[in-house]
Amino acid sequence: MNTTPVNEYDDNEIVNHSPNPHMDAILAAHLSRRSALKGGIGATTAALLGGFGLSACGGSDDDDAPPAKAAALSFAAVAKTHADRVTVPAGYQVSILHALGDPMQFGDSSWSDKGTETADSYDRRIGDGHDGMYFFGMKDGKFDPGTSASGLLCVNHEYVVAPYGLHPAGSTTVDGKRPAEEVEKEIRAHGASVVEVKRKSGSNDMEMVRGSRYNRRITSATEMAFGGPAAGNARLANKLSPTGTLAFGTNNNCANGYTPWGTYLTCEENFLNVIGRAAGDDAQRSASEIVALKRYGLPEGRKNPYGWDTPDGESYQRWNSKVSAGSAPQDYRNIFNTFGWVVEIDPFRPDSKPVKRTALGRFNHEGAWPAPAKAGEPIVIYSGDDARNEYVFKFVSDAKWDPKDINGGAAAGAKYLDKGTLYAARFNNDGTGEWLELSFGKHGIDAANKTYPFADQADVLIHCRLAADSRGATKMDRPEWGGVNPLNNEVYMTMTNNSQRDGTKVPLDAANPRKGNQNGHIIRWKEEGGQAGTRFQWDVYLFGAREDGKQSENLSGLTAVNDFSSPDGLYFDQRSGNAGGLLWIQTDDSAYTDVTNCMMLAALPGKVGDGGKATTRDGQATLMGAKASDATVRRFLVGPFDCEITGVVVTPDGKTLFFNVQHPGEAKADFATNTFSSHWPGNQAPASDAAHHGHQRPRSATVVVTRTDGGVIAL
C-alpha cells in the first residue's frame, strides 16, 4: 500500500499552440489618449478622486463630474509574517464559520480530526478546498440585496487537499487502484455548499444555522441540467444521459459569480483533475475530435490525476473519457465535454436542480463576474480562462434586465444566460482593445475553418478556445479572478503569473511585459459605448513585486505595507455609497513565501489612464496605472502557513467580511504523529469553539472578520 497525495492538475502545461500574438505588437509609444491627459495628476490624488470621485448610481464617464467625498483606508497595515494563524489589524477579530467536515444538519457527528467520517455523510458536511463564495441577504425566505443580518452563504469546494482531512492516513493506492470508499468521499467533498448564516446576538459576527432547510451540498455526484445552445447536443451525449440534456456533478469549482436575480454561479476550472483518457484512444476518434481534445489538454494516455477511474465498478468508468462502445451514447467518450462550464445554483430553492449554462462557453472557468445590472440593458458577465496563454471572455445577454425578475430563480437564469453573445478579448498596440464575436457562421467560424470544422453554435461553445484561436484573441498570463468597479464600471482581472514566459518561445508583450512573470499583475479596462460595447481602453493597474527587488522590478512602487506576489482572488465591495468601490486583492503565491504567508490587501483603485507608460528592464514597453502608496493599497491580513487566501465577500452594510483559507499546511503531513506544517484552524479557534479548537489536522475553512467596535470594515 502506497500513501500518495492527490495532485492538482498541472496548469504549467501549455495547450494553446495557436499563432495568436502574445501581444508582442503592443509596444513602443504605449500611452493612451486619456493617460496623456492625466499624466500630471499625482498618484494618490488620481487614485482617490479618479476612482472614488464618481457617483455610486451606475458610474460616470464624465471626467469633469464633481467629486464625491473621497474614501480612505482606516486600518494599520499588517506586517508580513509566517505565523500559523490569520493575522488582522489592531481593532479587528476573526472567527471560524465552518471548516472541512463540519456537519450542516443535525444527526451527523462533529468533526473527528481523524478522517473517519463516512463518504455518504459528506452529502451533509462542508466540503474541502474552500474557494469562491457569495453572500445573499435573505428576508422572509427571499433574496434581499440590502439585508446584512441574515442570509445564505454559497462557498465553492475546489479540490481535495492532499487530502489531510478526508482519510485516516491520506489517500492510498493499492496495486494501481484507489479504494472506492476514498474516491466516493472525495467525489462528495467537491462542489459547493449553501448554508444559512445569521449574526450572533449583539454582534456583527456570523454563525452557521445548523439544520436550516436551506443547507445543502452540490457535489461531483449531483444531477444537474444543461441549459443554452449546447443542451441536448450529441457532443454531450453519454451513457448517463443519452440525450445530452443532463450532467452529473460539478468539479474543481474555483471562483464564482452571482446574478442580480439572486442565484449563485459556480465555475469549473481545473476539471482535468478528474478526467483520464486511455492509451490508444486516438485510433477510435475523428481528426477533429483529436484536435479538440488536445486543445483542451486531454491527449490519449493521460492518467486521471485523482485516480477516480481506477476502482472496480461501472460508476467509476465515467471518469475516463475513452471510446469503449459502438456509439457515443453507450459509453463515456463525451464525458469530458460535460465539464468546464458555469453552473447556476438557486440557493433559495433547496430542491432546485443546478443548471450548466452553456452560452457562457467551456474552458477553465476561473469565475463569472457580472457588471452592475441596469434596467433596460443586457446582462454582461466577464470570465478568465485560467491557464497559461489563454483568453479573457465576455458574455452579453440578448435579454435586457428587468428588476421584476429578482427572485426569478432558474427561469430568470434561462432568460438571461441561455441566449446571448460570447466574445474573446484582443488587446491592441495603442492601448485600445476589442471584443471578438464567437458566433457560428461569422468571421470564418464554420465548417470550412482550417483549424477545426465547427458544426454549429453548440460546437463553438463546447470548443470556444478553438473559436478564439481562429479569431486571433490575445494570449494572456493565466487570467484568473475579475470584478467590475460599481462606481465607474471599469473591469479588473488578475494575471497571476507565468513562469514559462521566456521572451522567445513565449514572447513578451505590453500586457504581460516581464520574463518569467513570477509575481503577476492586474490588468483593467474601460468599455466604450456601454458595458456591452465591443471596444475598450486598457492599462495595467498594479504589477506584483517584492519590495526587496528580487525576481522582477517594482514598477508600481510597492513598499513594505503593500508589496505582494501572484494576485489571484479579486473582489469589488458592493456595499452602498463610495465604499462600494473598495477593491480586495488576494494572493496564491510561491514566489514570496520565503518572506510571508499569502495575504489579502485593500485598495482604492483609481481608473484607467491615471498613470503613464513604462519600460521594463527586459526592454518591453507597457502602459501602467498610477503607482501605489500607503493611502491607496494596504495589507489587510495574512493567512496561516502554507495556505492560499481566496474568496471574499462583504455584507451590504460593510460590517462583516467573509474570506476563505484554502489548503493550510499542504506541504507536509505525518499522520502517525499528527505532525503537519500547519495546524490551522485548530490553533486559532478559542476553547469555547469546540468544533474547531485544538484539532491537529489542517483544514480549509471560511473565516469571519469584524471590527471590535462594531464599525465598518477597512474604511
Protein architecture, described:
By secondary structure, this protein is mainly β. The protein contains seven helices and 37 strands. It is globular, with a radius of gyration of 24 Å.
Q: Helix/strand/pairing class, anyone?
A: mainly beta
- The main sheet orders its strands as 16-17-19-20-21-26-25-24-23
What's the pLDDT, averaged over the residues? 90
Cα shape: globular
How large is the radius of gyration?
A: 24 Å
Which sheet architecture does the biggest sheet show? 9 strands, antiparallel
Number of strands: 37
Helical stretch tally? 7
Features:
six-stranded antiparallel β-sheet; nine-stranded antiparallel β-sheet; 715 residues; mainly beta
Short description:
With 715 residues, the protein is mainly β.
Lay out the secondary structure.
Layout: E1 2-3, H1 33-38, H2 43-52, E2 92-99, E3 130-139, E4 142-143, E5 150-157, E6 172-173, H3 180-189, E7 191-199, E8 206-208, E9 216-218, E10 223-227, E11 246-248, E12 253-258, E13 264-268, H4 287-295, E14 342-345, E15 355-357, E16 369-370, E17 378-384, E18 388-390, E19 392-400, H5 409-417, E20 420-427, E21 432-437, H6 457-462, H7 464-471, E22 476-477, E23 479-484, E24 491-495, E25 521-528, E26 535-543, E27 567-572, E28 583-587, E29 599-603, E30 612-615, E31 621-624, E32 633-638, E33 644-650, E34 657-662, E35 669-670, E36 675-676, E37 701-707
Parallel strand pairs: 10-15
Antiparallel strand pairs: 1-6, 2-37, 3-4, 3-5, 5-7, 7-8, 7-9, 10-11, 12-13, 13-14, 14-15, 16-17, 17-19, 18-22, 19-20, 20-21, 21-26, 23-24, 24-25, 25-26, 27-28, 28-29, 29-32, 30-31, 33-34, 34-37, 35-36
